[in-house]
Structure formats: structure tokens, C-alpha cells
Automatic annotation (TrEMBL):
<dbReference type="InterPro" id="IPR000782">
    <property type="entry name" value="FAS1_domain"/>
</dbReference>
<protein>
    <submittedName>
        <fullName>Fasciclin</fullName>
    </submittedName>
</protein>
<dbReference type="Pfam" id="PF02469">
    <property type="entry name" value="Fasciclin"/>
</dbReference>
<dbReference type="GO" id="GO:0050839">
    <property type="term" value="F:cell adhesion molecule binding"/>
</dbReference>
<feature type="region of interest" description="Disordered">
    <location>
        <begin position="25"/>
        <end position="64"/>
    </location>
</feature>
<dbReference type="GO" id="GO:0007155">
    <property type="term" value="P:cell adhesion"/>
</dbReference>
<dbReference type="InterPro" id="IPR036378">
    <property type="entry name" value="FAS1_dom_sf"/>
</dbReference>
<feature type="compositionally biased region" description="Acidic residues">
    <location>
        <begin position="53"/>
        <end position="62"/>
    </location>
</feature>
<feature type="domain" description="FAS1">
    <location>
        <begin position="93"/>
        <end position="225"/>
    </location>
</feature>
<keyword id="KW-0732">Signal</keyword>
<dbReference type="GO" id="GO:0030198">
    <property type="term" value="P:extracellular matrix organization"/>
</dbReference>
<dbReference type="InterPro" id="IPR050904">
    <property type="entry name" value="Adhesion/Biosynth-related"/>
</dbReference>
<dbReference type="GO" id="GO:0031012">
    <property type="term" value="C:extracellular matrix"/>
</dbReference>
<feature type="signal peptide">
    <location>
        <begin position="1"/>
        <end position="28"/>
    </location>
</feature>
<dbReference type="GO" id="GO:0005615">
    <property type="term" value="C:extracellular space"/>
</dbReference>
Amino acid sequence: MNTRTILPRLGVLAATVALMSACSGGMTEDQPAPEGGQPAAEQTEDGAMASDDGGESSDDAAMDPAANLVGAGCEDYAAMVPDGAGSVEGMAQDPVSVAASNNPMLTTLTSAVSGELNPDVNLADTLDGDEFTVFAPVDDAFAAVPEADLSALAADSDALSGVLTYHVVPGQLSPDEVAGTHTTVQGEELEVTGEGDDLMVDGAAVICGGVTTQNATVYLIDTVLMPPSMAEQG
């Protein structure tokens, strides 16, 4: 083929336990409350300040699926899918294969992993059965592959399975820990370089990454990746 690129919550509980322990050892029943009758701010183990006045805590912010997104295309993604099952918030509610199927930018990938392209290659249950990091080529990435090459790939069960699993890494890697060399489910390694909005995966640009699902962290990429061994054959 003539291309290299074809296919948090225990924090609140911990802080509360730490605070109760500190109170039992450092205060007595006769110790007065702070002047003014207002509750004092409480400092957690990580230095974050929490209060009893109903203010938003750092853990509340961490529950926002959009809090840790990276990539120059995240705004465009949000504009295209502002809400619903295919949005960033919506994808967080479902297993990765279901979440991807709801994303209008991932229709070709969904067809490939669900057995629609080749009935002998259905990876949906596998992808939903453990924690993964998924580098997901968007539809435009598949459109850039010559039609003859894509058709040949779809007809070859082993090759298609190999290409698809090369896009999957065991375990969930957040944007601040994804850089580096990782062994894929396919068995060969891929390399993630850069940081923030400039992340690259084997030379493919991350459009929007850190998108969470029930069991996976997804990075939308602009190119279909190819395992090194298959690139050599092509």
C-alpha cells in the first residue's frame, strides 16, 4: 500500500478523613469557633481549599468531561456536536464502542470495529471489555486513504484487525501522561510526541484528545495509522 497511515471520587473522602483526624487531635470541645460565626475554609492534603459554603471544589471541576481536553480541533468538535450522545459529555456516559458510534466524526471507524466493513472483524466487545486508550481516526482520515487500498484492507481480516488494534493501547492515558512509546494491542509500538495542543501520534496530529468514555480515553486523530511491519511490506 502506498501510505504509512492507513488504518476522579475518592479525593473528597480522603480529605474528609484527614480533616476529621486533624480535628480530633488538635481541637477540644471548649475551643471556640472562628469569630463571626462563619465556617473556616478547610485545606485538603493536596493544598486545595474547600469550604462549607457550597462553593465548587476542585473535585467538582475534575468531574467535567471537558476539563482536560487538548487539541486545536476541540472547539470545532464542540461546535459540531454541542450536546447529545456524540458530544464530549455524552460520550462519557457510554462504553467506547457505543460512544464512538454516536460521534458523527467517527462513522468509518465505527463501521470498521463493529463488523460492518468485514463481518470477521468485530472488536466492539473487546474494546468495551477493559480500559484502553484509543487513537481514533476521524472520517476525513479514512477519506484520505486511496479507495483501492481501503477496499483491499477491508477484505483482509488479519490486516484489518492488525491496523485497528494498532490504534489501541491498554490502560487509560490522560493528556499529561500519554507522551512516550507505548505497546499497542496489536503488539507493535507507537510513539506519542509533543504536549498540549501539539500532540502527535506516529506523525498524526491529535485533533481533540482526552475525550473520556466509561472505559476509555479517546484521542481523535487526523490520519489512519499503520503498524511498522505492514508499512515495510507496503
